[in-house]
Amino acid sequence: MAKPIMAKATAVWLVDNTTLSFKQIADFCGLHELEVQGIADGDVAAGVRGFDPVANNQLTAEEIKAAEENPMARLSLKYNAAAQGEEKRRGPRYTPLSKRQDRPNSILWLVKFHPELADIQIAKLVGTTKPTIQSIRERTHWNIANMQPIDPVALGLCKQSELDTAVQKAAQKRAANGEAMTDDERRKLLSTEQSLGMDAEPKMPSSISGLETFSFGRDHEEEKEEAVPDADSFFNLPDHGDDDEDDDK
């Protein structure tokens, strides 16, 4: 369902100027019913100036009056060309100030663990620029010595579903170009849902493949046949004879 422009300010106006139920206002503005109740109590949207949906051609006074008389009625948004595409994000992703210092660490994580991602994909995921990504790829970033790779999902810079989608697109592009991938790269290109749905089968990392039959000594069967030494032979204790006992007497 399409939302009105300035949805929260519209909800403030409806709470202050109508007798509509919280549910009716929440359904129309795309908010939670408890959030509308918080607006009415003054706990939410404090200081937000109401936005008149009638004066701004989003509702009619007749429809509001009919909804006030019938609590089961739902308000419908009038077609407004200015509201088209209102929810679509424009420009780069906004990153809160408190998390911007961690953004290079998340870029380093993506470059290290998902090298198949293009610069434009990384830029959209964490809200950065191509020159910054390139400097981290080439390890010419001014703070590269102090940076640590951190998952951008754990930092809250992007959602896991967004990362999975970007990884899947990268996998499809590489497959279309006929580029070969290693087993480790294929496992990285799995989404979270696919990884969780797989059997819990231990896999030998490619970095130590070929060492399954390596051993440092003799076969295990030969070790079993070897007799276990007793305490005296193990500690190499001196043999005390009867002469020593006589001398003590």
Q: Can you give a write-up of this model?
A:
This protein is mainly α and 249 residues long. It is 48% helix and 0% strand. It has helices spanning 7-17, 22-29, 33-41, 61-69, 97-100, 103-113, 119-126, 130-137, 152-155, 160-176, 183-188, 192-197, 220-225, 231-235, 242-248. The protein is elongated. The chain starts with 6 loop residues before the first helix and ends with a helix. Residues 81-100, 194-249 are annotated as: Disordered. It comes from Celeribacter baekdonensis.
Topology:
Layout: H1 7-17, H2 22-29, H3 33-41, H4 61-69, H5 97-100, H6 103-113, H7 119-126, H8 130-137, H9 152-155, H10 160-176, H11 183-188, H12 192-197, H13 220-225, H14 231-235, H15 242-248
Helix pairs in contact: 1-2, 2-3, 6-8
